[in-house]
Write a structure and sequence with these properties.
This protein is of the alpha+beta class and about 250 residues long. The protein has helices spanning about 15-25, 55-60, 80-85, 145-160, 180-185, 230-240; strands at about 30, 35-40, 45-50, 65-70, 70-75, 95-100, 105-110, 110-115, 120-125, 130-135, 165-170, 195-200, 205-210, 220-225, 245-249. The protein is built from six helices and 15 strands. The strands form five sheets. The protein has a five-stranded mixed beta sheet. It has a four-stranded antiparallel beta sheet with strand order 5-4-6-7. Helix 4 (about 145-160) links the parallel strand 10 (about 130-135) and strand 11 (about 165-170). The relative contact order is 0.12.
């Protein structure tokens, strides 16, 4: 009740069970339907179904508003309340009542174990040039280790002249660990530069700077963002923009 009185949908109290669910998310492995959820005008909305997930196969789409879960209205629910009701043991069903524009429908989804890789690396052709396309899905427990592997491959190809540049894709990335955002920004920005600063009323400010030498300091970089790019995604994108290190699209 005290936290709810702030009247901010992004500030909430986590019970021990909700905290475990949140950590499971960042660990990249959980049982559920495989969809990123968000809040829009205090309504539970689908940011994006994960690729090849039960949610995608059942027909759930970006911007679907979830009005009820198993017949129970989601009005005034927090995001974590919605997640806790939608998740459940694999091979069990959940019925989502959704609003898509003016259309109302019920979608039944079979829960499964969901494994979410933080990073997906591929190569695409842009105006006749080969370019690395790195999809960054979240800033979780395994992100930095996955990033190091992908960054090393991209750096090697760039130095060998096999690729002309890089697209960093954080569309529909809801965020995660702040330290991970700083770690990844440090791959592109010179050592010692400021990434982000947290200011508090008691002057106990925290400053996050680049503390390592990145291996992608010179590669041409474009960052893809959308309305689902939140939190750590915004910090990373903002830092790269502010140092004129990347073009944001």
């Amino acid at each position: 009740g005290m936290v709810a009185s702030i009247d901010d949908p992004y500030t909430f109290f986590l019970s021990p069970e909700e905290n475990k669910q949140s950590k499971d998310d960042l660990g990249g492995k959980f049982q559920g339907i495989g969809a990123q959820l968000g809040l829009k005008e205090n309504r539970i909305v689908v940011i994006a179904p994960l690729k090849e997930s039960p949610a995608e196969r059942a027909g759930l789409k970006t911007n679907d508003i979830i009005t009820a879960v198993d017949g129970k209205s989601t009005e005034k629910w927090t995001l974590l309340q919605a997640v806790s009701k939608i998740r459940g043991p694999e091979n069990t069903k959940v019925i989502l009542s959704i609003l898509r524009g003016v259309e109302k429908k019920d979608i039944t989804i079979m829960r499964q174990e969901i494994n979410v890789p933080s990073i997906e690396l591929s190569y695409i052709k842009v105006k006749g040039h080969e370019v690395a396309h790195l999809q960054l899905n979240q800033f979780g427990d395994t992100t930095n280790a996955e990033w190091d592997k992908a960054a090393a491959e991209i750096s090697k190809k760039y130095k060998a002249g096999q690729i002309a540049g890089m697209v960093l894709d954080v569309r529909s990335n809801p965020g995660g660990y702040l330290d991970s955002a700083v770690y990844i920004a440090s791959e592109f920005i010179k050592k010692g530069e400021l990434i982000v600063k947290q200011e508090t009323l008691d002057s106990n400010n925290r400053v996050y700077t680049v503390r390592r030498t990145g291996i992608l300091l010179d590669i041409p970089l474009t960052v893809l963002i959308n309305e689902g790019s939140a939190s750590a995604s915004e910090i990373l994108s903002g830092a790269l923009r502010d140092y004129d290190r990347a073009t944001l699209v």
